[in-house]
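Table 4 source record.
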Amino acid sequence: MIIVLIIICSLVILFFVFYQKRKNQLLLRNAEQQQRFDEELLKTQQEIQEETLKHVGRELHDNIGQMLVMSTMQMNAALTAVNNEAKTKVNNAAETLKNTLDEVRALSRSLNSDVIFNLGFEATLKNEVVRLNKSGLIDSTLSITGEKVNFENKKDEIILFRILQEFFSNTLKYAEAEHLRVSLEYKEDVLNIKAEDDGKGFDVSKAEKGSGLINMGKRAELLNAILLLESQIEKGTSLSLKYPYKTT
């Protein structure tokens, strides 16, 4: 009887161990499948967003841009037909149209992922800083240290730029900042990126996780990049990104 009981207890224990092991394997497999599904869903969402931005960029360049070109030409033609008193006003209007055209073209380049892909991350970021300065809304600077490293995955450049673009947009809309500072630090294995403003800041722990903050975090996950967003009331906001551009 004792031997039988020992055998039965052993079988029960083995069954329990096997059951737990099997259960853990199923849970792990389900978690991996869910993770792969979430990653594919996120990539699909990002691709849709990029296609939308690309379309808007093209529309700005091809349609709105051409309309502004025609308006500028008509305004310049009007300069020859007005009297001296009105020439100053017409000339100012023509100059405003020209500046608007330049801004639309710059904006279309920053929205079109094909342009970003061809120019590269660093050149596109330089253009964006120039565009922000020309807008007169904020004083922006870009500093670069270290020896430039080419990305192994060119698509990563687009995603990184979109993260910074989201931060810039939030700064302009909410921060009431006067200055925006951006820095790139090329290291052997990672690219350190930092963007900071001197705006009114906010309490990160109490901030609503809007689409902007969520998009930045999700995009960073796609790159296996480490993202840190810090802010203090009346002391500004900073974004730090650590991107591992080398995978080998």
